[in-house]
Amino acid sequence: MSTLFSPIQLRDLKLSNRIMVAPMCQYSAVDGSATDWHFTHINSLALSGAAMFCIEATGVEAIGRITPGCLGLYSDANEAALKPIIASVRKHSKAAIAMQLAHAGRKGSSHRPWEGGQQIPLTEKAMIKVVISGSTKLGSVNSATKLPRVAWPSLSDRL
To answer: Contact 39/71 with Cβ under 8 angstroms?
Structure first.
């Protein structure tokens, strides 16, 4: 018999079943802040019957987002936009909430998938990308963006 629907305990976290919804990028944030789309999406995950769900890749700093539409958690405004969503989930569901913290590094600053998904050239106000490395030999350099760019040591300390 399957144990999929049986409870499980992971240290102090008790889950009613063994189903977790994986994070799914929505590319619908504005300046990193959640929108009404996120309210609907996240609450639907909470009501899905899964014992746990994971909020999409969430940038730890603005330049670390994959696209300008990616969720962030690097400003008071980002936190404030998530607060009513989390409050609604807590009110209507017992699902555990996880968040995928992310930093896209040199692969950041791309257009949303439905806008072609290609890297945004600096001429189109791309987010400045950095690579934490002592070498620029991490891959091919995009001629439009002149990447990768080597980060200064203090950036490594911030991340």
So the answer is: no
